[in-house]
Amino acid sequence: MRFTGGMIGSMAVLLTGCDAAALRPAAADGAAIARGREAAVRLGCGACHVLPGVDWPRGRVGPALSEMGDRALIAGRLPNRPDILAHFVRDAPALLPGSAMPALPMRDRDATDIAAWLGSLHAD
Amino acid sequence: MQTDGPLHHDADLARVLDGWPPPVLDPAGPYSEPITVLAWALLIGGTLVLALVLVALGVALFGSGRTKARLGGEKAIWIFGVACPVVVLTGLLVWGLTLTSHLSAGLPTGKEMRVRVIGEMWWWRVHYLDAVGRETVRDANELHIPTGIPVLLELQSADVIHSFWVPRLGGKMDMVPGRTNRLLIQADRPGIYKGQCAEYCGGPHALMGFIVIAHDPADFARWRASRRPAPIAGDLVARGARLFDTVGCAACHTVRGTPADGMAGPDLTHVGSRGTIGAGILPNNAGTLAGWIADSQAIKPGNRMPPYRQLSADDLRALTAYMASRR
Ligand SMILES: [Cu+2]
């Protein structure tokens, strides 16, 4: 895979910036996973994604999020690490300029919880 | 109370009857209170009657010969079979009718705030009226009211029969094509009260929700003063405004202060300040708004807005920014 300049830049922000420190993921315990699912529903991620185990809404603008824990790359571009995932769900355009996934203001805790939940989704 | 932001606390807007205490048993004003009182009275009364019948059944099955004979005697039948039901049911009828007589409204008396709500497949037009019934502001899917005064709703339908129901604020009233039905609601405390179309009206009827936002009177005056079309500021928003006309949104939607004057869909002049999107079913934020514009059919299957899968991510972002800025 080839790293683009923008990507290296954004990863540098991720690895060194203070934002990244704020989003250091908690241990992905059951409670965080449950809160993450609840936050994804509450924030309306279902308007664009099929969320596993959620029967409505089943958005089709973005990819289904089932098996997100097995994915090597986020959106085919970023390494699927909990801290990067947490950053991505809150501010996708900052990491992937031009992405149709919008920045979604949320609390740090929501972002890390959602990342924990997504990381727990595996093929059965 | 913050009323202009997304409803972060409320995920399941589509599930109006969920929650504890159940909204139907948790009245928040004088037009829903009597209904709850009546419901409890019927529930408790019904339980007592059931208990009585079970006791009688027990006696009939296991009682001694003498008690059985008494139970089947003419006197018992006159008392329990005729007198009791006549007295209880007549009493209940008179009491129930008196208790609820003020719930359906007659003509306006001048003391109420007046609003016309028109049911559409599968959303609501909301026209605020002045004291003599002239339209002041148009909005959709959301009703703002001050606390403590009755609000007289003039309910109409543009197509099929719908039913207006905000369980915590009042009764349920059908919206019948060609008629105006009047219903009073009132909220005694500020808050957000969920509503739902309560008469099957086809397709996504279950996703035809509604919210009422009750403000204390000073807050309400501020809200009312803020109902002026927002200026178009910034490049992204300006681009979104142009797209709104060129990709066809304007054919169905009105945005006051712009050339967009379509009537087929909800008025979007203030859509950015609405608490919900899709007629009371999802919290309104940058994500749900963009998701709705790109493919509302996945969210509310069968609704009358086409999906816009042809938009680029940039166009979608611009349209979403424009919509969010219509406050
Ligand atoms: Cu309906």
Automatic annotation (TrEMBL), chain B:
Q: Where is the Cytochrome c domain?
A: 235-327
Query: What UniProt keywords apply to this chain's record, in alphabetical order?
Result: Copper, Electron transport, Heme, Iron, Membrane, Metal-binding, Oxidoreductase, Respiratory chain, Transmembrane, Transmembrane helix, Transport
Which GO BP terms, alphabetically? ATP synthesis coupled electron transport
Q: So where does this one cross the membrane?
A: 37-64, 76-97
SUPFAM superfamilies for the chain: Cupredoxins (SSF49503), Cytochrome c (SSF46626)
Q: Which residues form the Cytochrome oxidase subunit II copper A binding domain?
A: 110-226
Question: What Pfam families does UniProt report for this protein, alphabetically?
Answer: COX2, Cytochrom_C
Subcellular location, in the record's words?
Answer: Membrane
Membrane topology type, per the record? Multi-pass membrane protein
> Has keyword tRNA-binding?
no
Gene3D superfamilies tied to this protein: Cupredoxins - blue copper proteins
Q: Which GO terms describe its molecular function?
A: copper ion binding; cytochrome-c oxidase activity; heme binding; oxidoreductase activity
Identify the InterPro entries for this entry.
Answer: CcO_II (IPR045187), CcO_II-like_C (IPR002429), Copper_CuA (IPR001505), Cupredoxin (IPR008972), CuRO_CcO_Caa3_II (IPR034236), Cyt_c-like_dom (IPR009056), Cyt_c-like_dom_sf (IPR036909), Cyt_c_oxidase_su2 (IPR014222)
Q: Name one GO cellular component term.
A: membrane
Q: Which reaction does it catalyse?
A: 4 Fe(II)-[cytochrome c] + O2 + 8 H(+)(in) = 4 Fe(III)-[cytochrome c] + 2 H2O + 4 H(+)(out)
Q: What does this protein do?
A: Subunits I and II form the functional core of the enzyme complex. Electrons originating in cytochrome c are transferred via heme a and Cu(A) to the binuclear center formed by heme a3 and Cu(B).
- Family stated for the protein in its record: Belongs to the cytochrome c oxidase subunit 2 family.
Name under which the protein is recorded: Cytochrome aa3 subunit 2
Whose protein is this, by species?
Sphingomonas montanisoli
Upper taxonomic classification of the species?
A: Bacteria, Pseudomonadati, Pseudomonadota, Alphaproteobacteria, Sphingomonadales
